[in-house]
Design a protein that fits this description.
The protein has 5 helices and no strands. The chain is mostly helical and 126 residues long.
Length: 126
């Protein structure tokens, strides 16, 4: 293993962690803002948005911790990769009728790849 790999694994985990922390915080604290400016999908439901935020925010926080101990966090990384992959599939099913939807799909595919790679390549001792 090169000396570069731990830094790459950490970065590959921190990008999704930052997204999940930010999205979770917005969904939980200001769900109308999230709906209006980021994802105007379906009818607005503040309670449901807060429910989603209450799961995404801690997931992001746990990923931040996992970035410093990826080899001990493989189950969490695998869970996050699978959840992100399902999220990407959901976007694919709904269709990519706009550039915004295409960017969202590409982002969730990237997140899935980064977390999957991190789970598969995290070495003992990291």
């Amino acid at each position: 293993m090169t000396a570069l790999r731990p830094g790459l694994v950490r970065a590959a985990i921190l990008l999704p962690a930052a997204y999940y922390c930010a999205a979770g915080a917005l969904l939980f604290a200001v769900p109308r803002f999230f709906y209006t400016h980021i994802a105007t999908i379906g009818d607005f439901n503040a309670h449901y948005a807060r429910d989603i935020g209450s799961f995404l925010l801690p997931l992001g926080g746990f990923l931040v911790v996992a970035a410093w101990r990826p080899s001990r966090s493989r189950p969490l990384l695998t869970f996050a990769a699978v959840a992100s992959g399902l999220h990407a599939v959901s976007h694919l099913i709904e269709g990519v009728g706009s550039w915004k939807a295409l960017v969202a799909l590409a982002f969730f595919v990237l997140v899935t790849v980064l977390l999957s790679w991190s789970a598969l390549t995290a070495s003992e001792g990291q």
